[in-house]
Amino acid sequence: MKIRPHGGFFRATGLIASAAALSLALGGCMSMSLEDAAPSAAITTPAPMPQPAPRTAPEVVSGPGVRNTGAYPDLNIPPESAGTPIDATEKDALTRDLSAARDRLVGRAPTNNAEAEAIRLRRLAKTHADRQLEEIEKSE
Q: Where is the signal peptide (predicted)?
């Protein structure tokens, strides 16, 4: 069996390509004016913006935060503390309270005994499984 090549596909593709090239060439001959592309209000230059009024005195904001004093900040002045520091007696009291809390929690910490932990987890799994089976049987 012989396969004969048909030129129909390539002939149609060539016609479509030439038609597209011809339409692009003819479309390039037409030129639009700027008025056709954009409305006239977009072409006109806008009115100049009014200049801000000169500042006579620096702004002072009351309260904490940023203040414009009109001068550069002096970084050699140490800043004021935001809070009052604690004294030695308060430090000792806080340290004693935290140590007592830590000692209470150490007694509740789980042991490192792996066998006891495995037995505890098996017992928990068995009771959990029994509870789940009871709930399933109740719902049926």
A: 1-37
